From TrEMBL:
SUPFAM superfamilies: SNF-like (SSF161070). Keywords: Membrane, Transmembrane, Transmembrane helix, Transport. The keyword Membrane applies. It is a multi-pass membrane protein. It is found in: Membrane. Coiled coil: none annotated. This is Sodium-dependent transporter.
Length: 446
């Protein structure tokens, strides 16, 4: 048995935790959610929701993880011995496992686009080509399975290296690269003629969109984009030494998540408006509309290549946190088993994800409650697993752990602590329940 690994520095932890949050939710989902819900008002509500609800729950996960100093299941057992609260940890294991099984499928799609971009075979194709290409990629069984397998191998290679040598090292490379790529793409997008229309869409409020539905959708996006509810952040925090300030780390992660989401919007919306496209194209905005937009730009093939590298980095930084949650629970304290466990769990997750990978081709006609395997896995995790997990974490931190222990662990001013404690005990649970009910109703209506 080896000594428990730790992050070597605060910046390494913040980059890894931010990478966990900054995935497809920020770069793929945020732009199309903002685009289909009025832009500016959604953006404003998203920022408020992140700081008011998402940040306190994120901090709760950090507190529980650092105090437990173990995998999520063991941490809950240490924090409340003899009770069944450890089942929250197993819930995190299960839902991280399922999320990664279909998340890796999207990672495979990105690799398919990236491969074509590297060969410069995506330029000068015409607008209709990209819609056909997306349909061709996701329905081709061999392409999606190979892409999914390669993505899982990349994820396993990073996780098997451990915290400092694998996850922290990879995050220190990928996160700064992601930020640099984003800055370049934002500058290019903002220099297009007509780009200011996209900026106005994002930042000049159209109050006609201010309604209960938009508020709940924005809160849901803020909440889920921080990757809380499945014990991933709790797992990362368990590798923190006691001298690290949790409050500042949680704030940094939240601000990075907001910043990357806004930058994703500033890459996409100015270009979309400048080149005459509609911002409400939905989920196809990144895979269909954006390549068509890049095609019309000078050096468009280069910028398209940069974007898909960026998207791959963001997706990988999230996938490694999910696999780490699964592996850490699977090996308990037997850290010498990490390398073998990473490969075994990676293989099983790949196999479980095969039905999701084939959902748009071979298995397209097979439905569970009217949903494809892919959509059902997404619904099960996003609409049920994450909110229920986050609700239980909020209740555990707010009502089960002794207040004196939380004060000692957080080491923040009394005013800040009491504000956080009030939100975790009262405001966050109500907000989570509302988002959960809205997601369930919307799913069945759809």
């Amino acid at each position: 048995m080896e000594k428990r690994d730790h992050f070597a520095s605060k910046i390494g932890f913040v980059l890894a935790a931010a990478g966990s949050a900054i995935g497809l939710g920020a770069i793929w989902k945020f732009p199309y959610m903002a685009g289909t819900n009025g832009g500016s008002v959604f953006v404003l509500l998203f920022i408020i929701g992140t700081l008011l609800i998402g940040l306190p729950i994120l901090l709760a996960e950090f507190v529980l993880g650092r105090k437990g100093q173990a995998d999520a299941v063991t941490s809950f057992k240490r924090l409340k011995p003899g009770k069944n609260w450890f089942l929250i940890g197993w819930s995190g294991f299960f839902f991280s496992f399922i999320i990664l099984s279909f998340y890796s499928v999207v990672g495979g799609w990105i690799l398919s686009y990236l491969g074509r971009a590297l060969m410069f075979s995506l330029d000068n194709k015409g607008e209709s080509y990209y819609g056909e290409l997306f349909g061709t990629i996701i329905s081709n069984p061999w392409e999606v399975l190979i892409g999914q397998a390669v993505f899982m191998i990349l994820t396993v290679i990073i996780v098997r290296g451990g915290i400092e040598g694998g996850i922290e090292r990879a995050s220190r490379i990928m996160m700064p690269a992601l930020l640099i790529f984003f800055v370049v793409l934002v500058v290019r997008s903002l220099t297009l003629d007509g780009a200011m229309e996209g900026v106005k869409f994002m930042f000049v409020p159209d109050w006609s969109y201010l309604n209960a539905q938009t508020m709940l959708l924005a809160l849901g996006q803020a909440f889920f984009s921080l990757s809380v509810g499945v014990a991933g952040m709790m797992t990362y925090a368990s590798y923190l030494p006691k001298d690290q300030k949790l409050g500042s780390s949680a704030f940094s992660v939240s601000m990075l998540n907001i910043g990357i989401s806004l930058m994703a919007g500033l890459v996409i919306f100015p270009a979309v408006f400048a080149l005459g496209y509609s911002p409400d194209e939905g989920p196809g905005l990144v895979f269909i509309i954006l390549p068509a937009v890049f095609e019309q730009l000078p050096f468009g093939a280069f910028f398209m290549l940069m974007f898909f590298i960026l998207l791959l980095f963001a997706t990988l930084t999230s996938s490694i946190s999910m696999l780490e949650t699964v592996v850490s629970i699977g090996i308990k304290n037997a850290y010498d088993k990490r390398k073998r466990a990473a490969w075994i769990y990676g293989l099983v997750i790949f196999l479980v994800g095969i039905p999701s990978a084939l959902s748009f081709g071979v298995f397209a006609d097979i439905k569970i409650f009217g949903k494809t395997f892919f959509d059902f896995a997404d619904f099960l995790t996003s609409s049920i697993g994450l909110p229920v997990g986050a609700l239980l974490i909020s209740i555990f931190a707010g009502y089960i752990v002794k207040k004196s222990e939380l004060i000692e662990e957080l080491n923040i001013s009394p005013v800040t602590f009491n504000t956080w404690y009030f939100i975790v005990r009262y405001l966050a649970p109500v907000a989570i329940i509302l988002v959960f009910i809205n997601a369930i109703i919307s799913a069945f209506r759809g």
